[in-house]
Amino acid sequence: MHLGLIGLGKMGANMRARLREHGIDVTGYDRNPAVSDVADLAALKAALPAPRAVWVMVPAGEITDSVVTELADLLDEGDLVIDGGNSRFTEDFAHAEVLAARGIRFVDAGVSGGVWGEEFGYGLMVGGADDDIAELMPVFDALRPEGPREEGFVHVGPVGAGHYAKMVHNGIEYALMQAYAEGYELLAKRTDLISDVPATFKAWQRGTVVRSWLLELLVDALEKDPQMDDIEGYVEDSGEGRWTVEEAIANAVPVPTISASIFARFVSRQDDSPAMRAVAALRNEFGGHSVKKAPAGE
């Protein structure tokens, strides 16, 4: 199979590498000519056999909108566009409609795995027509982790379902990170009792009910910077947590834990705290998200 890939940033470049390692031909396009395989989208189209499959891996919102609009004018009837970014699920309906007017198919893919996905594989949650998903299974199988397909891939439902599932996934992620971070602050406060905070978290990695990949990443972050001295406790949010809470309100579903984790991020932008330094460090570990360096002397 030959896939077009638009967007060769942190995740896009790693996805291209993993796909190629697993036997998928990939032609990538990025505005940065140093990493792009072709000069422009017209050249990308020319490089792909029909019917074409083009994966869009660019920031959600206006940039994704503009790329989808450009592809609607460029691609041919029967081609297929996959949005693998963090678009809001409601945007999928609009994108599918724009493309369908030109006879172009659309699939939405929620992708988790961050900067580690090239090595370990990506968790995939996809939405779209059964035939379209079946056509793309060689790509999904190359991207997902090794092992049983159902443990790293799910066809959630029709268009919009993939990004909806990813939205809820990220809402849960917010809450898990906040719980670990608050535990870190409690341990760090009691230096009279707790002599080695990183070792305490490390000991939880085997046999305990709180073990997880996020815990492993927190241990990695603490081993690099045990007191989190190099990180300011300022934490951004990329949107999915807010959307999860908004969807919960719309459906009268109580999500107090996820809601609290969102508000904690807002608090972090007003006052630095050890817990929010831990959340910032976790986001950097799994996703390569930028952190604010603490001012010198702190």
TrEMBL record:
It is an enzyme of class 1 (oxidoreductase). SMART domains: 6PGD (SM01350). GO terms for molecular function: NADP binding; phosphogluconate dehydrogenase (decarboxylating) activity. The lineage of its organism: Bacteria, Bacillati, Actinomycetota, Actinomycetes, Micrococcales. This is 6-phosphogluconate dehydrogenase. InterPro entries: 6-PGluconate_DH-like_C_sf, 6DGDH_YqeC, 6PGD_dom2, 6PGDH_C, 6PGDH_NADP-bd, 6PGdom_BS, NAD(P)-bd_dom_sf, Pgluconate_DH. The gene is gnd. Gene3D superfamilies: N-(1-d-carboxylethyl)-l-norvaline Dehydrogenase, domain 2, NAD(P)-binding Rossmann-like Domain. It comes from Agromyces atrinae. Its EC number is 1.1.1.343, 1.1.1.44. The keyword Oxidoreductase applies. The keyword Oxidoreductase applies. Belongs to the 6-phosphogluconate dehydrogenase family.
